[in-house]
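1st attempt posting a full record on here, be nice pls
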Amino acid sequence: MQIRSTTKKKVLLFLYAGVSLALSKSPEKHIRILKRIPKEWKKINRQALQAVIREFYHHKLLEFKEISDGTVQILLTQEGRRKAVRFNIEEMRLAKPERWDKKWRIVLFDIPEKKRRARDILRDKLRELGFYEWQKSVFISPYPCLDEIEFIAEYFDIRNHVRYAEATSVMNEAELKYAFHIY
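the predicted structure (as tokens):
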């Protein structure tokens, strides 16, 4: 099933946000997720929403579960979660704070050849997110990104091969500041 409409993507991501809330133990993540939902939810046309839910159910992306009090829960199936995560990765951007906290975020990886495709995708995604390729398997950014890196590593099943570090001092810092327009 191809999902192209913005409404479909939003609905899938809203449902995925519910899954993320249930799985996350971090109050900060809860607040971040909950802040983003209401504005976008109001923008969705209710008729379009009902049509999307029916279509997702038909394509086995959703399932309905009746609760003892008579209400019905709409849940993402495993396939629905997979599609939502893919959209989340496609839409992922790093937030650029107004003021740089003077920390460098470094992503290092040593991914075996048998996972070459995941390695290439990780490299491409890091470039897309605006990381600077410091060495072949070392990327650096001045912007907070731990959640995003963990998400990508988990999604591509390469967590054991990816490392993340924060540093307050690096060699050739002037080159990096120039690359990120931090003066």
